[in-house]
């Protein structure tokens, strides 16, 4: 179990073999496909870092990649966070209720790396 702070609240996260089943049951899709989508997004931004262009141009390109993929990436990250919370506490509120408690979601915060790391370490 790992604790992370998302917004103003601390949550306990857990991932095990049943997490995959819960993810498919709640979100109707495979968690491995979503992990792959995150990996693809990360690889695109890393490719930009390798380009022989100015730092300003790199930032512009990475921002464009982020904007093109932001909805999908945000959905996957929030769903992974939720399923890891739900795996730890099966009496936790619904996904929609949980999202309604969020003020602002910033995917550049430390908790995002923790959520993704827990999922990838659990399944990969």
Question: Short description, anyone?
Answer:
The chain is mainly α and 124 residues long.
Tag the structure with descriptive keywords.
single chain; 124 residues; mainly alpha; two-stranded antiparallel ribbon; 5 helices; globular
Description:
This protein is mainly alpha-helical. The protein has one domain. Helix content is 69%, strand content 8%. The protein has 5 helices and 2 strands, in the order ββααααα. Strands 1-2 form a two-stranded antiparallel sheet. It is globular and about 50 Å long.
Helix-strand layout with pairing:
Layout lengths: L1 E5 L2 E5 L3 H11 L3 H20 L4 H34 L6 H6 L9 H14 L1
Antiparallel strand pairs: 1-2
Helix pairs in contact: 1-3, 2-3, 3-5
The backbone outline, from C-alpha atoms, is globular
Domains (count): 1
* End-to-end CA span: 17 Å
Helix content: 55-70%
Number of helices: 5
Strand order within the widest beta sheet:
1-2
Could you name the ranges where pLDDT drops below 50 across 5 or more consecutive residues?
A: none
Average pLDDT works out at 92
Give the biggest beta sheet: 2 strands, antiparallel
Q: Helices and strands, in N-to-C order?
A: EEHHHHH
Structural class: mainly alpha
**How much beta, percentage-wise?**
5-15%
Radius of gyration: 15 Å
Counted beta strands = 2
């Amino acid at each position: 179990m790992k604790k992370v702070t998302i917004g103003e609240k601390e949550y306990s996260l857990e991932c095990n073999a049943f997490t995959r089943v819960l993810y498919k049951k709640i979100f109707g899709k495979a968690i491995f496909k979503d992990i792959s989508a995150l990996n693809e997004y990360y690889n695109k931004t890393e490719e930009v870092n390798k380009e022989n262009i100015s730092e300003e141009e790199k930032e512009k390109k990475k921002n464009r990649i982020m904007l093109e993929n932001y909805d999908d990436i945000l959905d996957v990250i929030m769903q992974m966070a939720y399923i890891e919370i739900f795996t730890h506490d099966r009496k936790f509120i619904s996904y929609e209720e949980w999202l309604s408690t969020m003020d602002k979601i910033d995917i550049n915060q430390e908790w995002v790396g923790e959520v993704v790391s827990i999922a990838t370490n659990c399944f990969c």
